[in-house]
Amino acid sequence: MVLTAAACLVSACGGGDEEPARPKASVTPHKAASPRPAPTPSPGGPTTPANYRESCSLQPQICRARPGAVPVRLRRPLHFPSTGQKCPVTGGRRLPDGLPFGGVAVGSGPVRGVLLQHDAKAAVAGTLQLEVQPRQGWYGGKTLWFSAPSYTGPVLLRGTRLDQPGEVAFGAGRPHALAVQIPPGRGVNVVDGYRAWTGLTWFREPGCYGIQVDGTTFSTSIVIQVQFRP
Question: Contact 8/91 with Cβ under 8 angstroms?
């Protein structure tokens, strides 16, 4: 089975040295196209970690367990555009040569994501084709999140479905967490100053999804259209 995702940066706000301030796009809270009850978490399913220790214990490939939690100011409200009749997606941009990793990145600012797949031409055009592995009723696409050397602070990663109630989960072998807390400082995987966090991003079914990345000086929102096909 193959998962096809068209990914886009829809809004970003920045400050400080890492990312100059820019006008914010006018967005409205998303609405479900066909309201329905939110899914009930299954026993042993993904959880929302309360601190670094819980988050890093769930995903040791990302960070080492330590005391503390992301600062309260990183827990900003999720900000995505209204979906309307169409998921508001745009394409990613190919990373320049010379980085420790390659691919087409989505988002902006010091922390961005790379949705890993084989068809590079389709990715540049905005269509990302990812192989998926069903686990506990979820389908996951390989992803890599990275931080530029200019930003060494904490990161909070969260997601949600935009066109109907639904969740986004994160994890390497299975959907472990509904959010990721990454502590500041040097991480587990660092090459040439770039912190890299590998794993999978998990979805239960096709739809329009948003992923938000928050740091001390920025907040970036990405929209992904997810489709399954044989």
Answer: yes
List, for residues 135-156, the tens digit of each pLDDT value.
778 888 888 999 999 999 999 9
Give the chain's count of helices (H) and strands (E): 2, 13
CB atoms within 10 A of CB 96: 8
Whether 176 has a pLDDT exceeding 70, the answer reads: yes
Tokens at 144, concatenated: 């890599």
Taking residues 152-167, report their average pLDDT. 95
Among residues 84, 86, 77, 44, which one has the least CA distance to residue 160? 77
- Letter for the amino acid at 19? E
Q: Is residue 26 packed enough to be buried (19+ CB in 10 Å), middle (13-18) or exposed (0-12)?
A: exposed
Tracing tokens 């400080």 back to the chain, one arrives at 16
pLDDT surpasses 60 at 57: yes
The SS3 assignment for 174 reads: coil
Instruction: State the number of CA atoms in the 13 A half-sphere of 220 facing the CB.
Output: 23
Question: How far apart (Å, rounded) are the C-alpha atoms in residues 144 and 136?
Answer: 22
Query: SS3 of 125, please?
Result: helix
Record the pTM. Answer: 0.78
**pLDDT tens digits, one per residue of 104-113:** 888 788 998 8
Q: How far apart are CA 122 and CA 218, in angstroms?
A: 29
3-state secondary structure of 16: coil
Report the Cα 74 to chain-centroid distance in Å: 15
